[in-house]
What does this fold into?
Amino acid sequence: MNTEKVTARRLTAEEISGLGPQDGIFVSAGTDGLPLDCYAPAFLTEPGKNFEGGSFAARTVFGEEIHVLPDNAEEAGIWIADKKGEEIEVLRSAGVLLNLALFVPSGSEASLDALYTAARDAFGAGVVQRWSEEVVAVPDVKVDLYEEPARARKNTNGQNRDRRALDIYPTRVRFLEPSEGWKFIVEPHKEIVDDTPTI
It folds into this structure.
């Protein structure tokens, strides 16, 4: 985790209402369950003038969306770079958390240990960790994955289906999430046969 000192000042709600999504700001770098005593570069998700009470929504450069009450003394607030301000600690880079599901053909305990050892050798023993481990036998079959509206009208015959992914293994479906307002439909894989006449 790399940080740097930045001179900035805390903004009031009135000042934030004059900002837009193109303006660079700093907000708390803490995430759910992981409080960090520093700030992260961010931007408003919509112009501050749309603020109608409640909280301002900002997205950090690390993809976290947070809601801030700027006048709440118990919160970190929203800051902007200002040479006349005070020094704050800003998070500039961090590691990447990978959630991996590894498919090991004819997987055995020895092959899983070899994978783990190789990853630790490549990235460092203190970096690679097993957060949870689940060994699942994966059948050598594929499925087709579709999305359709969660509240589809009756008798639409699947007209609203949107093919999300093709030829995926059933266990991978557990690691995907449908779009908001949609649900997944999993069907046995069918090869696409193009019977268009050719000349």
User: Anything to note?
Assistant: The two ends are 62 Å apart (CA to CA). The CA atoms of residues 14 and 75 lie 17 Å apart. The beta strands are 2-10, 25-28, 39-44, 56-60, 65-68, 79-81, 86-93, 143-149, 162-168, 182-188. The helical segments are 13-16, 109-123, 170-173.
